[in-house]
Amino acid sequence: MKKIIYILTALIMIAAESFAVSSSNAGTSTAQFLKLGAGARASGMGEAFAGVANDATAIYWNPAGLGGIERGSLSVMHAAWLDDISYEWAAYAQPLGGFGVLGVGVQYLSYGTLTKLDSTGLEGDSFNPADMAASLAYAKKIGSFGVGINLKYISSKIVDTATAYAADIGIQQKLGDKLTLGLAAQNMGSKMKFISEEDPLPMNIKFGGAYSIKKNWIAALDANSSNDNDITYGAGTEYVWALDDSMAVAGRLGYNTTAEDTGGFNGVSAGLGFTYKSYTIDYAYVPYGDLGNTQRTSLSVKF
Prior knowledge:
Elements: H1 2-18, H2 40-44, H3 58-61, E1 73-80, E2 86-95, E3 101-110, E4 114-117, E5 123-127, E6 130-142, E7 145-157, E8 161-175, E9 179-189, E10 192-194, E11 197-199, E12 204-214, E13 217-226, E14 232-242, E15 247-256, E16 268-276, E17 279-287, E18 293-302
Antiparallel strand pairs: 1-2, 1-18, 2-3, 3-6, 4-5, 6-7, 7-8, 8-9, 9-12, 10-11, 12-13, 13-14, 14-15, 15-16, 16-17, 17-18
């Protein structure tokens, strides 16, 4: 197992060294929907989740976080995106006794119905572009250390369809009772080809930590180094009020630098959560400046 840990760590660091980190590379990768995140909880915390990830959404943020799941975990999300775009995400994680945790996930982005135009500007048939990614993940926790991998099939449809394959690998280490560090390499894989043009996937190295200020209050910070942008940062906090043994309310605030060039009010995010027994509903509000505002709602269930 130690050899596996060393190999995974080495692969992540090699991927980090290979990334050309510069805003001049903006627009040079495809399948941008892979950056849209998963779960309203993480969105409300500024997407600072590499060290926090401890439920089914870990499939997206850091697959190593799946290793700490002790019960079946289902998470579904709907996001009212910009204009008529809608974004859906769902995942399920199942512990396998002492053999780790297996997870599956699906991302789906619909751009609505569009109309074709010919070279003269005349309207033609309508079409429905969409993006999709299906994931299969596995994680194992060994003491305070977790490792995980996520394999993806990615499909992007305009009129024709292009496909690609990718993998995420991650590690997560708990240091003492308060601090957890996470490191993940995301979207490492093949290029996506439309007709004759090939473009790389939006590969990213995510490194972050979560600190437990109190038992019911955490703070988190992430840094992201991608192949098509400058380094970006996310920071967030979550405070949970226990109403009784079966109910709790959570408040979240976050900030992320990804959308800082969109003008207007951007970067800040806020969220709320309500838990009753094994059910949790989360909501997040994320503005994108002059582009508009997005809202995300999640439902999570533990079995």
